[in-house]
Amino acid sequence: MTLVFPDTNILLWPFAGGPDFREAINEALPGCDIRIANCVLEELEMLGTPDAKSAAEFCQEMMVINLGIGGVDNVLLEAARRGAVVATNDRELVERILENRGRVLRPRGGYKLELLPAE
C-alpha cells in the first residue's frame, strides 16, 4: 500500500476552489493510505487563517503521524526518500523530491493530481 503525505498547500486546496484532496489523491493512487504529518498540522495552526483552522480541524479526524522535528519541507523530503509519496504544489519541494528519486503528486489542471515521475 502506498503511503501519501499531503503538504499544507494541498490541505488548503479545497478552500481555494479545488477538489477534496482525499478524492484527488485516491483518484491518482487508488487504495493508497493518506496520513497527515504532525508538522504539517502545526503549520496549518500557525497560519491562523479561517481556512487553515478549518483544514486543521478536518485533519484531526485523520491519522496524524509524528515524522520528526524539522521544517515541513525537510520532513516531507525525508518521507519521500523513504518511499512515501508527497502531495504538494510547492515547486521547490517538488524539485528536491524528484532530485532525490522520490515521487510527488502535484496539481494538474486545477482539479486533478499527477504522479511524478510517471510510472
Note down, in words, how this protein is organized.
The protein has helices at 8-11, 21-28, 38-47, 50-59, 72-81, 91-99; strands at residues 3-6, 33-34, 36-37, 64-65, 85-87, 103-108, 112-116. With 119 residues, it is an alpha/beta fold. The protein has one domain (3-116): 5'-nuclease (Rossmann fold), CATH 3.40.50.1010. The strands form 2 sheets. Strands 2-1-5-6-7 form a 5-stranded mixed sheet, with helices on both faces. β6 (103-108) and β7 form a beta hairpin. The two termini are 15 Å apart. The model has no long low-confidence stretch (mean pLDDT 93).
Features of the shown structure:
two-stranded parallel sheet; Rossmann fold; 119 residues; single chain; alpha/beta; 43% helix; globular; 5-stranded mixed sheet
What are the SSEs and their pairings?
Elements (H helix, E strand, L loop, with lengths): L2 E4 L1 H4 L9 H8 L4 E2 L1 E2 H10 L2 H10 L4 E2 L6 H10 L3 E3 L3 H9 L3 E6 L3 E5 L3
Parallel strand pairs: 1-2, 1-5, 3-4, 5-6
Antiparallel strand pairs: 6-7
